[in-house]
Design goal:
By secondary structure, the chain is α/β, with parallel strands linked by helices. It has 9 helices and 11 strands.
Length: about 250
């Protein structure tokens, strides 16, 4: 039986994630909740133009629902969050109370937000990754491993994004923090419509190692979220990140 998913957020990334879930053999998208009333009660599959043999879920607005009552009448196994930093406060308490697993892909949380989601994890599984693509987290994991093997190596991070993106990439900052680098070691490029590219350069004497991840489409975020969803049944209640999921998979037998 397919696991039931509810999706918070329906921007450009949310739409791409919804498409990935609708095409999954293991999961079904029961509903989407967004802030705006536009598209309210529209069929998800009809709006996205995705053929489906299952009963189509619908789009709802936070303005016109009581989340506690909504989750009672529309239960799901997992909530995937691609909304905003404050979205967790809309559904978090109710989801925890009903033991609904939470996968958050919000790019930036403040310290108090992280404390809140850790509190929720006492009653359910809460997973958070500021970049939920499998490729970026593989790059991050391997980069840390290489730094551990050769702690004196020279390291630089290059991040490339579309022309309008402001500030340093949150993913690049996370990579720098994991490798204990100052942000001055991050080089940013803004050009055209680049979706997202991160490169970690390791400078050894007489050789270099380059690890590169490039996002081709936002569907990568959906694939990453479902990768995590497939591993949640193996966990007990608690707060988890990508390293918790990947570490057992890297064990050499």
């Amino acid at each position: 039986m397919k696991k039931k998913i509810g999706l918070f957020g329906f921007g450009k990334t949310g739409k791409a994630v919804a498409n990935v879930i609708l095409n999954s053999n293991d999961f079904r998208l029961d509903w989407i909740i967004r802030n705006r009333v536009l598209l309210e009660h529209r069929s998800i599959t009809e709006y996205l133009g995705v053929p489906s043999n299952i009963k189509a879920g619908k789009i709802y607005s936070t303005e016109n629902i009581n989340i506690e009552e909504f989750l009672k009448s529309n239960p799901v196994d997992i909530i995937i969050d691609f909304s905003s930093r404050t979205g967790i406060y809309v559904y978090g308490d109710a989801a925890s109370k009903h033991h609904i697993k939470i996968i958050s892909a919000i790019s930036h949380y403040k310290k108090e937000d992280i404390e809140f989601i850790k509190k929720l994890s006492a009653e359910t599984i809460v997973f958070w990754s500021p970049n939920i693509t499998l490729g970026v987290n593989y790059l991050l994991y391997v980069s840390k491993l290489l730094k551990k093997i050769a702690p004196e190596v020279d390291i630089a991070v290059i991040e490339e994004h579309f022309k309008g993106k402001e500030g340093i990439s949150g993913t690049a900052i996370k990579i720098a923090e994991a490798l204990k680098l100052d942000n001055t070691r991050i080089n940013s490029v803004r050009a055209g419509g680049i979706v997202g590219k991160h490169e970690v350069i390791f400078g050894f004497p007489f050789q270099t190692v380059r690890l590169i991840h490039e996002s081709i489409g936002r569907e990568a975020f959906g694939n990453g979220a479902l990768f995590i969803a497939r591993h949640l049944p193996n966990l007990n209640n608690g707060y988890f990140n990508f390293q918790d999921i990947l570490t057992p998979l890297f064990a050499v037998k």
